[in-house]
């Protein structure tokens, strides 16, 4: 089996190395991830320490991106903000994957009343944006990073459920599924052994796209005060704090704004590249 799969993997690796969207997206995503990981062990300064005497300093050898209105090092805040954005996005996507995919697979396998009930419940959840869910959670538990993760994760559940349902439903009519039924396999075993592996590439691509949307959602929630709370740095809150200083120090808004744009662009490019590489129809066209 490994000998027959090796040529396919080599072809995939060759195509990946020749795919500019995938390479650029992967490079940007790796840089952001490396910056986030580096912040656990090193930052130029402590991003939570206030130093009013050094407030609004321009970029220098000591503070590469300058300081904000409270004297905090902007580069250090950006590095720690990457941890916040990536952590919230990954956990939120994990919630969506862990709940949405099984629900979609269940609806496709059962169909009938069970499948209809599952999909209508997903439609109901999908009607509530992450912002509304975050406001509800704040009123119950208060604002915070955990509530932001849960709010974005709940919003991701119907996204993955719809994707799994739409991808799995036509697979149940394929010949290999009929052969599995004849062999005496039950619905659960068929789902795990045949349905899920054949739709895994779609799930991976969608997860990458939802990661980029998670970065945007986290920034939006932090911007309005529903996400990560002080003193933990957040790109969204940096934008909120900089909005009154646009005329005096526009870099305070430009730097976190560019960080969000570049991160989202990198993840979107990575998702587009993965779609092109993993979709068999696009692979044949190439």
Automatic annotation (TrEMBL):
Keywords: Cell membrane, Membrane, Transmembrane, Transmembrane helix, Transport. Coiled coil: none annotated. InterPro entries: BP-dependent_transpt_permease (IPR050366), MetI-like (IPR000515), MetI-like_sf (IPR035906). Residues 82-271 form the ABC transmembrane type-1 domain. It is found in: Cell membrane. GO terms for cellular component: plasma membrane. It comes from the Bacteria. The chain crosses the membrane at residues 21-42, 86-109, 121-138, 144-165, 248-271. GO terms for biological process: transmembrane transport. It is a multi-pass membrane protein. Gene3D superfamilies: MetI-like (1.10.3720.10). CDD domains: TM_PBP2. Belongs to the binding-protein-dependent transport system permease family. This is Peptide ABC transporter permease.
């Amino acid at each position: 089996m490994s000998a027959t799969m090796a040529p396919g993997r080599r072809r995939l690796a060759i195509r990946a190395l020749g795919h500019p969207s995938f390479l650029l997206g992967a490079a940007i995503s790796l840089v952001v991830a490396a910056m986030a990981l580096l912040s656990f062990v090193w930052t130029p300064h402590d991003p939570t320490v206030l130093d009013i005497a050094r407030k609004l300093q321009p970029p220098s050898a000591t503070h590469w991106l300058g300081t904000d209105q409270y004297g905090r090092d902007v580069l250090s805040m950006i590095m720690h903000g990457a941890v916040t954005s990536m952590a919230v996005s990954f956990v939120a996507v994990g919630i969506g994957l862990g709940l949405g995919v099984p629900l979609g697979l269940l609806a496709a396998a059962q169909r009938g009343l069970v499948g209809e009930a599952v999909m209508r419940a997903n439609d109901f959840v999908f009607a509530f944006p992450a912002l509304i869910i975050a406001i509800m959670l704040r009123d119950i538990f208060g604002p915070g990073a955990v509530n932001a993760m849960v709010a974005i994760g709940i919003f991701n559940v119907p996204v993955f459920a719809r994707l799994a349902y739409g991808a799995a439903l036509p697979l149940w009519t394929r010949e290999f599924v009929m052969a599995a039924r004849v062999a005496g396999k039950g619905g659960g075993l068929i789902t795990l052994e045949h349905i899920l592996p054949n739709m895994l590439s779609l799930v991976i691509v969608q997860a990458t796209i939802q990661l980029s949307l998670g970065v945007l959602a986290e920034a939006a929630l932090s911007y309005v005060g529903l996400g990560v709370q002080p003193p933990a740095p957040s790109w969204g809150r940096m934008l909120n704090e900089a909005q009154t200083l646009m005329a005096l120090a526009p870099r305070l808004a430009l730097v976190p704004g560019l960080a969000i744009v570049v991160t989202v662009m990198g993840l979107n490019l990575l998702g587009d590249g993965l779609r092109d590489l993993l979709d068999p129809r696009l692979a044949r066209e190439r």
